[in-house]
Amino acid sequence: MADQSIQAAVQDLHQESATQQAGAGTRTQMGTNSGTAPSLSSGVALDWINRDIHEKDVMKRAAEQAMLYVNLSKTPINPDMLRFATKDEAAKAGVMPFFRIGQHVRVGVVDASVPEAQALLNRWKGEGFEIELNLCTAESITDAVKIYDAQQMVMQKDIVTNIEESRVSAFEKEIQVLADLKSRVETVTSEEALNLLEVGAIKTGASDMHFEPEEKVARVRFRIDGELYKIFEIDKKIFANVINQLKYKCKMKMNVTNVPQDGRYSFMINERKVDVRVSSIPTQYGESFVCRLLDSGKSFLSFEELGFQGAYLAKMEKLPTLSHGMILVTGPTGSGKTTTLYSLLSRFNTPEAKVITLEDPIEYHIEGISQSQIDESHGYNFADGLRTILRQDPDTVMIGEIRDLETAQVAAQAALTGHVMLSTLHTNGAIESVSRIVNIGLPEFIVAPSLHTIIAQRLVRKLCVCAEKRATSEEERAKFTAQLETIRGVVPDVSVAVPAEMLVAKGCAVCSNTGYRGRLVIVEMITLDTDLQEMILAKASTAKLYEAARKKGMITMQEDGVLKVLQGLTTMDEVFQATNLAV
Ligand SMILES: [Zn+2]
User: What CATH number is given to the structural domain containing 378?
Assistant: First the structure.
């Protein structure tokens, strides 16, 4: 049996099983990961007939011992179970929790008498759980561990809450005054309450959030610039909900309150990842929590996480070795160019390198980098700031945006005299950026030698794990095949093919029924080599430059989008919408 059909079979079994057990209430949430099963397909060649015989043997043995029996391959495992044991612990002990209501946990077990199994079972009993044993085959455990792996991947991704930009600005409006947080926190779900606090902490530049229960109320404090500030006091009941949400997110044991615990989680804010290290200590009035927000250069998304692939990813990875030249990230507002720029900047940020930025405003603080804020009202503009900065002998300089000739001139001059310059430009495409910068007033003979790489990008929404498969229509097949042919004419080694089934957005609780979760970039990128530099010097038209860039392997943003659609990462709707966004 081919991998694909095993995968399909496992999924079918899941669906079948989920239907059979729909009466079990909480179980309807499980096994909704259709479309995420690639890790189930890792070369498993199951002998279904032998397996069936073995399952029947164990079923019989269970009946003889008056025990329950479970086939874990046919039973969706609630992601909640992943907190009970590590995959290795479970595999080694031949034990797998698969269902829980309150403190009652159903566990599949191969042989409850082996010491590893006993140790795990005793541990859970010690944590106050009531264990119900279900006999299962060793193959069942192996399968469950695989499913567990797949889910853990999904879990790890999902646990990174993405606070969308629109929500952030809404939050920001709501929390002009920090005390306002209190009334908001009291009226929203615990998940939203925690998000509000996260945004509040980031907005105020807090390094830590403290949650401290007192006798009658609980106190929330932020550490800002080294000082602890009381933000508000809340009702202990609301506090308990927020804390449960926090413990869930950072994977602490929910039922343990009397010993210190450590955990961590991440959240996304405006496409930037913030890692949170959480520690708890038991106090007289309940558990007290400190959350350290780690917002350093290290936590910027990798180029791959941002959505760069193939030749473009390789180009990006090479950029931080550059010794001089200008790198421009271009796109309209909301195209994620700042995120890419910061991610790139953080890669230039090594202990030996001096990195300085000039921003308006400073959006993210990065450890190890001197960041300065321009102040037009006091005559400190990009051009002046840049001149000042260049006197400090930096290796890499980032300026927020090239808006005028003066800034462009200083930036180009810096790029020509041994500095790496990073900046953004407000243009549609990579090639158009050349004429844009010439139109600002920078002559071709300066543009040609100073400009190194141009990255033009847009953001598309990523399909949620709930996406549904639908057979590819003949029309789609023809359209995508033609597009792939064009792309292969530019980049011959593209390995993506038109799949038999395409993913369509569906919607679930996780993605607030939008069908999408998170975002990724679609890109076109060009590095100027001598040919292109000479063409710029010769004042070649945008059309001619485009033609030459195609020969050098530049696929367009839309083509990059098509490749991502064919990989099931996003949809054509998204790609069209994003690429029609004009400056
Ligand atoms: Zn969804």
Answer: 3.40.50.300
